[in-house]
């Protein structure tokens, strides 16, 4: 029993990216286009899609295809995928995030997050799979990449609904890999931390104080950095694609029965499992101490620290 090495070629392949008009999706589109791929991007806002198309063409000389659709609408997604043509790399990058404690969050917001983050991903894969499987052996290996989050590796205060939607993607990815491996289709799951995107400012305004403290400990990445990590992982056929050192540690801590194609990483996961678990316990105990503090006392303490700094 041994892992089989895989290389997913990019040049002259068709890459279809959702959430491609801004943030990580737009950075991915830029990089794939510069790698010689044929790129299609999908988003809801046609005006933003046109602006993204123009920006990519100016920077890379590549004319990308754009599709306006809501991922919650399966028929619209199916039509866009069929119009785009056979896909070699499908990147399910769409996502929505409303941070708030479950007690205070509306059911409408929770449903909206699940419809976009989870059902939107099902819609895309369901629509694309028949075309991805067609003539696959002659076209070479393909990839389905799903954008999760570090909140899909560990539950975080104020992310109850969001974390649940991102944890769901892991179950989808692990089971799907079993179903498509015989067709030479390889699933990747990406776990970025907070990323500097157009929606981050609004997210930060909504974050509870405890959420900002805990989530901020992982640092923030640029969308371009996440895009580069994502593409490197896709090309290697990696199942888990962490984006920073915290993500690497979380990947080891949560490896479970996830696929692993690298002998070196498999060995590291086995050797590092115990010390990483111990480190994780220290983090959890530290968080628990914060959770037990009265919220008003916590905000006053945080305000005093900000004044000092």
Please give the CATH architecture: 3-Layer(aba) Sandwich
CATH class: Alpha Beta
Q: Looking across the biggest beta sheet, what order are the strands in?
A: 3-2-1-4-5-6-9
Rounded average pLDDT: 89
User: CATH superfamily assignment?
Assistant: NAD(P)-binding Rossmann-like Domain
**What is the CA-CA span between the terminal residues?**
55 Å
Order of H and E elements: EHEHEHEHHEHEEHHEHEHHH
Number of DSSP strands? 9
In the predicted model, the low-confidence regions spanning at least 5 consecutive residues are 302-309
Beta-strand content estimate: 5-15%
Largest sheet: 7 strands, parallel
Helix % is: 55-70%
Number of helices: 12
GO cellular component, one term: endoplasmic reticulum membrane
EC number: 1.1.1.102
Keywords: Endoplasmic reticulum, Lipid metabolism, NADP, Nucleotide-binding, Oxidoreductase, Sphingolipid metabolism
Subcellular location: Endoplasmic reticulum
Question: Which labels suit this protein?
Answer:
about 300 residues, alpha/beta, Rossmann fold, 7-stranded parallel sheet, two-stranded parallel sheet, 12 helices, 9 strands, about 15% strand, globular, disordered C terminus
